[in-house]
Amino acid sequence: MITRLQEKYEKKVKNVLAKEFGTKNTFAIPKVEKVVVNVGIGNLSKNQQQTDALKKDLATITGQAPSVRNAKVSIASFSLRAGMPVGLSVTLRGGRMYSFLDRLFSIVLPRLRDFRGVSLKSFDEMGNYTLGLEEHTVFPEIDSTKSASAHGFEVTIVTTAKDKEQSKRLLELMGMPFQKD
After folding, report:
1. Which of 21-25, 72-76, 87-91 is least confident?
2. What is the DSSP string of 103-157?
3. In whole angstroms, what is the distance from residue 5 CA to residue 90 CA?
4. CATH (one of 3.40.190.10, 3.30.565.10, 3.40.50.300, 3.30.1440.10) for 37-89+97-151+160-169
C-alpha cells in the first residue's frame, strides 16, 4: 500500500532533490530512512494500568506495538534499579513511516496551540531531525477521556542525507512546516 506522502516523494520530491543537488545516482538521493518515536514513562512504571494505557495509545498512534526499554544501570537518587522499565520505543519504516509522517505534518502539528512552525535548530550533524511534543493526546486517534494521562514524547526522523541542508530541503519538500525567519 503506497501512502499519499510516499507517492509525493517518489513522483515529485525525488526529482527536485536530484536536480538541486546534481545527483545522478538515484540511490544517492536523500530519503527518510526511519522514524523513531520514544516515550519516557517515568513514575508510570510503578502503575501497570497507566503503563498499559500508554502502550495502547502509542500503538494506536504509530500502528505498531511499542517495545519496552529498561534501565541499564541503577541510580539510587532516582529510585531506579537496573532492569526497571523507563521508556517505550517504536521504530517505523516503509508505509507505516510515511503514514505517520503524513499525519504529523498535515494534521497534528497545525493543531498545536500557537504553532508557527518547527525549529530549524533541531537537526544533528548527520541531518537527522528530532522533534519533541508535550502531549500525545494531540493525535486525532486518541480519545483523551479514555487514554493515559497526557504524556510527552519525541519523534526522530532519520534521513540518508549527507548534511543538514540536504535534510532540511528533503523535509521541507515533503511538507514539514518549518519556522519562517
Report:
1. 72-76
2. HIIIIIHHHSTT---B-GGGB-TTS-EEEEES-GGGSTT--TTTSPSP--EEEEE
3. 20
4. 3.30.1440.10
Phi, psi of 82 (to 5 degrees): -55, 135
Nearest to 151 by CA among 21, 71, 11, 56: 56
pLDDT at 41 (0 to 100): 82
Of the candidates 92, 142, 138, the one whose C-alpha atom is nearest the C-alpha of residue 114 is 138
At residue 34 the predicted structure's pLDDT band, cuts being 50, 70 and 90, is very high
Q: Which residues pair with 68 in a beta bridge?
A: 88
Q: Which residue in 172, 177, 180 sits closest to 9, CA to CA? A: 172
- pLDDT surpasses 70 at 22: yes
Q: Specify the amino acid at residue 105.
A: F
Predicted model pTM: 0.83
What b/e string do you get for 10-39 counting C-beta neighbours within 10 Å, with b at 16 or more? eeebbeebbeebeeeeeeebbbbeebbbbb
pLDDT value at position 163? Answer: 84
d(CA 170, CA 29): 9
